[in-house]
User: Which sequence fits this backbone?
């Protein structure tokens, strides 16, 4: 079960990245072209937020109860887990940065509900989504990252 959840969590990262890039493009073109806010923009932002929250729930389960989870594994090494690059990344850096990114995505979606001018709505959402994308790209365990890297498409 743990392997399947890790694979699902990794697959959802691609869905989030695609939806986040689409949200960035829609918000950027929205404020650059001066168009009015559309229901399609709100739905794209909503799907981005929902997929991010589902991935967060899967990630929190992995963080606590997964194969290398805090509760199921515990730290058995000498000294602090902060000295171990693998556990520092998966127990602290990855969850912390991803939670920040999901908060930013949620704030970006929140712009769709605000009663502010459409250009301001697009501009603020663009900023939130862009920073969230940068944070996510920095926190993903890419295959080239030594000791912490994972496959681009695990299980395939």
Assistant:
């Amino acid at each position: 079960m743990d392997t399947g959840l890790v694979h699902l969590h990794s697959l959802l990262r691609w869905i989030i990245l695609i939806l986040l890039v689409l949200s960035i493009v829609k918000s950027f073109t929205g404020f650059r072209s001066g168009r009015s806010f559309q229901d399609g923009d709100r739905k794209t932002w909503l799907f981005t937020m929902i997929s991010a929250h589902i991935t967060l729930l899967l990630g929190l389960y992995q963080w606590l109860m997964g194969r290398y989870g805090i509760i199921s594994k515990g730290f058995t090494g000498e000294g602090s887990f902060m000295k171990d690059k693998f556990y520092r990344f998966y127990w602290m850096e990855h969850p912390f940065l991803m939670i920040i990114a999901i908060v930013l995505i949620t704030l970006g979606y929140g712009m769709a509900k605000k009663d502010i001018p459409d250009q301001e709505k697009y501009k603020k959402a663009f900023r939130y989504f862009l920073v969230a994308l940068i944070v996510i790209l920095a926190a993903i365990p890419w295959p080239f990252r030594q000791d912490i890297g994972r496959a681009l498409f695990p299980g395939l």
Remarks:
- Residues 2-139 form one domain.
- The CA atoms of residues 52 and 102 lie 6 Å apart.
- The chain has a mean pLDDT of 90.
- The radius of gyration is 17 Å.
